[in-house]
Amino acid sequence: MAFVFILYALIILFIINSLTHSLCMKTNMSKEKQPRVFRTINVLITILLISSYVEVLNAAA
């Protein structure tokens, strides 16, 4: 089950990064600000995915 969830998480992170890149290009965001935006979004999505995994583990037990 962990392998499936890790694969799911990687797909979600790839999609979110693609959407973030589109947002940066559409809003003409400066090159200095882009890494901070990517880092913030990636950290928040990772926290969300980890909490979802813990919730799934607790529901299965």
How far is it from the N-terminal to the C-terminal residue, by CA? 13 Å
Shape: elongated
Give the low-confidence spans. Answer: none
Structural class: mainly alpha
Instruction: Report the helical percentage.
Output: over 70%
Largest sheet, if any?
none
Number of helices: 2
Work out the number of β strands. 0
- Element order: H for helix, E for strand: HH
Strand content: under 5%
Which whole number gives the mean pLDDT?
94
Number of domains: 1
Q: How large, in whole angstroms, is the Cα Rg?
A: 14 Å
Transmembrane segments: 6-25, 37-54
Keywords: Membrane, Transmembrane, Transmembrane helix
Write the topology of this structure.
Blueprint: H1 2-26, H2 34-60
Structural write-up:
- The protein has 61 residues and is an all-alpha fold.
- It has one domain (2-15, 30-60).
- 85% of the residues lie in helices and 0% in strands.
- The protein has 2 helices and no strands.
- α1 runs antiparallel to α2.
- It is elongated, with a radius of gyration of 14 Å.
- The model has no long low-confidence stretch (mean pLDDT 94).
- The chain crosses the membrane at residues 6-25, 37-54.
- Keywords: Membrane, Transmembrane, Transmembrane helix.
What is this entry, summarized?
The chain is mainly α and 61 residues long. Helix content is 85%, strand content 0%.
